[in-house]
C-alpha cells in the first residue's frame, strides 16, 4: 500500500519497511523524531516520508484495509453501519501552532473530533482549534465520514453535540 518509486526516477535510497517500522516506533512510543535509535534511517528522512504518506493518502489507505480486516476477523461486516463520535480538548503550547480556547473547559489548545465503529476501531480523526464547538466539529467529521463509509447510518454522540448534528 506504500507508493512505489516513480517510474524513470531514482529508486528509494532507504528500505520502506525500515521507514514504516521507525514511524510506528515514534508513534507508539510518543517520542520525537530526533530521539530515534541510530539503527533507523535519519530522522529527517523519516519525517519526510511520514508527511509524504499523509499527503498522498497512504495512511488513510492503510487504516481502511486494517479496519476492514479486523472487522472481518471479528466476524463482522467489513464496512461499519454504526459508530460513536466524541471530542476532546488537548492543551498545547503556543509553539505547537494554531490553537483556540475551549470556553466550556477553559482550555487553550486543540480539539480532536473522533469517530470510531462499535468495535472501537478508529474511523475518522479531525483536529481543529479548541474554539470549535463539538457540534460544528462533529458536522465536519460526519461529512468526511460520509464519503468514506457509505454504509454507516447510525452515530451515537454525547450531550456536547446537542442540537441538529446530522447533515
UniProtKB/TrEMBL annotation:
Q: Which residues form a coiled coil?
A: none
Q: Which InterPro entries match?
A: IS402-like_dom (IPR025161), Transposase_11 (IPR002559)
**Segments forming domain Insertion element IS402-like:** 2-62
Where does the Transposase IS4-like domain lie? 79-160
What is the recorded name of this protein? Answer: Transposase
Amino acid at each position: 500500500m506504500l507508493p512505489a518509486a516513480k517510474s524513470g526516477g531514482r529508486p528509494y535510497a532507504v528500505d520502506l519497511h525500515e521507514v514504516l517500522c521507525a514511524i510506528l516506533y515514534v508513534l507508539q512510543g510518543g517520542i520525537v523524531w530526533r530521539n530515534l535509535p541510530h539503527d533507523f534511517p535519519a530522522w529527517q528522512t523519516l519525517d519526510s516520508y511520514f508527511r509524504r504518506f499523509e499527503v498522498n493518502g497512504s495512511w488513510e489507505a492503510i487504516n481502511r484495509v486494517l479496519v476492514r480486516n479486523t472487522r472481518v476477523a471479528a466476524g463482522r461486516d467489513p464496512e461499519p453501519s454504526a459508530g460513536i463520535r466524541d471530542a476532546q480538548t488537548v492543551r498545547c503550547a503556543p509553539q505547537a501552532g494554531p490553537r483556540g480556547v475551549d470556553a466550556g473547559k477553559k482550555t487553550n489548545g486543540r480539539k480532536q473530533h473522533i469517530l470510531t465503529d462499535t468495535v472501537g476501531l478508529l474511523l475518522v480523526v479531525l483536529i481543529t482549534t479548541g474554539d470549535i464547538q463539538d457540534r460544528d466539529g462533529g458536522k465536519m467529521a460526519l461529512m468526511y465520514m460520509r464519503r468514506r463509509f457509505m454504509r454507516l447510518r447510525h452515530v451515537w454522540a454525547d450531550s456536547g453535540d446537542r442540537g441538529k448534528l446530522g447533515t
